[in-house]
Amino acid sequence: MQAIEILERLIGFPSVVGTPNGEVVAWIRHYLQRHGAVVTELPGPEGDRSNLFATIGPKETPGYILSGHMDVVPAAESGWTSDPFRLRAEADRLYGRGATDMKGFLAAVLAAVPALAAASLRRPVHLAFSYDEEAGCRGVPHMIARLPELCATPLGAIVGEPSGMRAIRAHKGKAAARLTVKGRSGHSSRPDQGLNAIHAMTDVLACATAEAERLARGPFEPVFQPPYSSLQVGTLKGGQAVNIIPDSCEAEFEARAISGVDPITLLAPLRASAEGLSRRGFQVEWRELSAYPALSLAADAPLATLLGELTGIEPLAAVSYGTEAGLFQRAGIDAIICGPGDIGRAHKPDEFILAGELLACQAMVEALGRRCTQ
């Protein structure tokens, strides 16, 4: 099958983050098995979605991982001019949810599988397809934990997030959390008889503002924009009416960390501030939503050199968005980002990828396969 045909099939599966993904997993598994790949389906703890790991070549020899996620963000936003889960082609543009982020990469990799299978690979090429990346990389840690039983320690992982086929060596880490504060309702004329949850939340919001300002003073890592770790309040909900003491308030916080900084630690002062509210009679729930580490691959790392040779483009130092690459690196596997498409087209109505971008990615994967025969 050609890459465009495969992309059409993949987009037809509405594998929205946080939902069952059995259909897309089954189709990819059967496709790979038809071409002789050794495929392992790895169910996650949720019970209704799975990661998929496949090997072409000798698994006992160190090789390379091609990593991508099968889930997509929802497509309920207005502005779509066609069914988001049905591929629409107009000239060189291929429209559909996930076309760029990142079923285009999956399609290009799968289109290269026949060539990889026909080659006499001395080093294996592994495919690591994950679930729920869009919810904070929730699926891939379960797969990474199983790698020692699935293959020899890989030489590197190529994460195919949209990068215009230019390799990227670094990204920030991220952590997100939700805080729920519950107080006691009542008539606004008797504030002495209630516990105002919104008023209580302002303590934590003030802490968040102060921490954000402190982080902006450094430390710095110049390859990033901005060159420092950051923190923000992303959502805030609470209250029923102006004359009712609000008994509940909810906020979501996000931190993004430069290399060497654990993003979870950036939220610790907020959590401590929140827990202090319990001494004033409020009920407090702090829930971690997602967390993944930063990626930082040295410019002279063999994997960076390899990707520069495969693509013909000097790797880029860093990007602002996050990926699963940092999790591979934390597990002791060098990782780099390189995939087709433009991140600016992702998570928008009429998301698209160019047919030429698919072919360029397929050519890169096939070139990697030729390297693995040497």
Largest sheet entry: 6 strands, mixed
Cα shape: elongated
Separate helix tally: 9
The share of residues in extended strands comes to: 15-25%
The helix/strand series, from N terminus to C terminus, equals HHEEEEEHEHEEEHEEHEEHHEEH
What is the CA–CA distance across the termini? Answer: 27 Å
- Indicate the percent of residues in helices: 25-40%
Number of strands: 15
Low-confidence stretches: none
Task: Calculate Rg over CA atoms.
Answer: 23 Å
Structural class: alpha+beta
Oligomer: single chain
Overall residue-averaged pLDDT value:
97
Spatial arrangement of strands, main beta sheet? 1-2-6-3-7-14
Describe the structure.
The chain is α+β, with helices and mostly antiparallel strands and 374 residues long. The protein is built from 9 helices and 15 strands. The chain has a 6-stranded mixed β-sheet, sandwiched between helices. Strands 10-11-9-12 form a 4-stranded antiparallel β-sheet, covered by helices on one side. It has a 3-stranded antiparallel β-sheet with strand order 4-5-15. Strand 4 and strand 5 form a beta hairpin. The longest helix is centred in the middle third of the chain and has 19 residues. The protein starts with a helix and ends with a helix. The model has no long low-confidence stretch (mean pLDDT 97).
Question: What's the SSE blueprint?
Answer:
Elements: H1 3-11, H2 22-34, E1 38-43, E2 50-56, E3 64-69, E4 88-90, E5 93-95, H3 103-118, E6 125-130, H4 140-150, E7 156-159, E8 170-171, E9 173-182, H5 197-215, E10 230-238, E11 248-257, H6 263-276, E12 283-292, E13 295-296, H7 302-311, H8 325-330, E14 335-337, E15 352-354, H9 355-371
Parallel strand pairs: 3-6, 3-7, 7-14
Antiparallel strand pairs: 1-2, 2-6, 4-5, 5-15, 8-13, 9-11, 9-12, 10-11
Helix pairs in contact: 1-3, 3-9, 5-6
